[in-house]
Amino acid sequence: MRSNVIYRIFIFIRLFSTCRLQCFYVCRGQPYEIVCEIVSSPPQNNAKVAVLGASGGIGQPLSLLLKNSPLVGELSLFDIAHTPGVAADLSHIETRAHVTGYMGPDQLDAALKGCNVVVIPAGVPRKPGMTRDDLFNTNATIVATLADAVARNCPEAMICIIANPVNSTIPITSEVMKKYGVYNPNRVFGVTTLDIVRANAFVAELKGLDPARVNVPVIGGHAGKTIIPLISQATPKVEFPADQLSALTARIQDAGTEVVKAKAGAGSATLSMAYAGARFTFSVLDAMNGKDGVVECAYVRSEETECKYFSTPLLLGKHGIEKNLGLGKLSAFEENLVADAIGELKGSIKKGEDFVANMK
Ligand SMILES: NC(=O)c1ccc[n+]([C@@H]2O[C@H](COP(=O)([O-])OP(=O)(O)OC[C@H]3O[C@@H](n4cnc5c(N)ncnc54)[C@H](O)[C@@H]3O)[C@@H](O)[C@H]2O)c1
C-alpha cells in the first residue's frame, strides 16, 4: 500500500498571529492530510501619516523613511513649497504607502483629513550663533497655524512636534487644541528622540559598545541645559569619572550646536533628526497597533516636576501615553541638572502659552 502523502500548503497572509489549520480527507481510498499554516509577517496597519514641512531638510528624509515603512498606508505631504515634486519622487518607490503632496494654505485642510499621526518639522532652523529660542518669533506662528488646522481636521491624531523651540511649541500646540476643546494631553508629543539617539551614540563610542544596544534616557526639555541625560540609568550600566561625565553631558546638551557649526550656515541637524523622527513615529504606530512595552522619552504635559511640560520615559499605548514612567532614581549630579533646568523650562512654557493667549 502507498504511504500516506502529506501536502503542506503554506498561505502567507500579513497577520499579527500565527495559526495552523489541519484537516484530513480521503481521496481514492487514501487518507491525505492538508496543513495550512498562516504565518505572521511584520505587523502593519493602514495608518495615514501627515508630514507638515515635508519639503525641508528634515521633512524630505523623514518622508523617505516613512514611505519605506509597512506601518504607513497613506503618506500626506504638506509644505508651502515643492511638495508636488517631493511626492512625485517618493511615489515611485516600490512600497505600499500611497503618497499625496499638498502645497500652500488652501490645501492644508485636505492634507490633514483622516490623519492618525501628524509629524511637524515645519519652521526655520538655527544658523550659527542662534539659540533655539531665537526661532520663536517665526516658528511660533507656523506651529500655531498648523496646530489650528490639526484641531479642525484630525483632532484625534497623535501630534509629534519637531519644530523648535520644542520647549515652547508644545505649550503652543496644547493651547491651540484647548481653544477648540479637543486637547488630549496623551496625544501631543515634543520629539526629543534625537537627544536620546545622540546620547546612545556618544556613550557607545566612549565605551566601545554596540550603539543599537545602548539606551540612555534623556529627560527635561530640548534646549541647552534643559536637556538632561540620565547616564546613571543607562543600559547596559556604564560608569564615567566625574570630569568625563561632565564633558559627556555637555556634549549631549550641545550636540545640536555642534551640527549647526559644522554646517556653517546651511542649517541644523536634518538627517539624524529624520532618523530620530521616524524612530519616534514608528514607536507611536507600533503602540497604536497594540504592541506591548513601547517606551520612548518625549516632552509632554506632565505632573512629574513643577514644570507643566517635561520629558520623561513614557509607556505608549493605543491611545498615546499610557503611563508616564517618571524620572526614576537620579544621581546627585542629575538632580542638580534638573534643578538647574526648571527656571528656563518654566519661562519657555509661559512664553508659548502667552503667545497663544495673545493671538488674534
Ligand atoms: N526636535 C529636534 O530635535 C530638532 C532637531 C533639528 C531641527 N529641529 C527643528 O526642525 C525645524 C525644521 O528644520 P529643517 O532643517 O527641516 O528646516 P528647513 O528650512 O530645511 O525646512 C523647513 C520646511 O518647513 C517649511 N515651512 C515653512 N513654513 C511652513 C508652513 N507654514 N507650513 C508648512 N511648511 C512650512 C519650509 O518650506 C521648509 O520646507 C526647525 O525648527 C528646526 O529647528 C528640531
TrEMBL record:
Binding site for NAD(+): G53, A54, S55, G56, G57, I58, G59, D79, N139, I162, A163, N164, M273
CDD domains xref list: MDH_glyoxysomal_mitochondrial
Positions annotated as active site in the UniProt record: H222 (proton acceptor)
Ranges where the Lactate/malate dehydrogenase C-terminal domain occurs: 192-356
A Pfam family matched in the record: Ldh_1_N
InterPro entries per record: L-lactate/malate_DH, Lactate/malate_DH_C, Lactate/malate_DH_N, Lactate_DH/Glyco_Ohase_4_C, Malate_DH_AS, Malate_DH_type1, NAD(P)-bd_dom_sf
Gene Ontology biological-process entries: malate metabolic process; tricarboxylic acid cycle
Catalytic activity: (S)-malate + NAD(+) = oxaloacetate + NADH + H(+)
Superkingdom of this protein's organism: Eukaryota
Signal sequence extent: 1-21
Domain Lactate/malate dehydrogenase N-terminal, first and last residues per copy: 48-190
UniProt keywords, alphabetically: NAD, Oxidoreductase, Signal, Tricarboxylic acid cycle
One Gene Ontology cellular component annotation held by this UniProt entry: mitochondrion
EC number: 1.1.1.37
Binding site for substrate: R126, R132, N164, R198
GO terms of molecular function: L-malate dehydrogenase (NAD+) activity
Family classification: Belongs to the LDH/MDH superfamily. MDH type 1 family.
NCBIfam families: MDH_euk_gproteo
Complexes and interactors: Homodimer.
Protein name: Malate dehydrogenase
UniProt gene name: MDH2
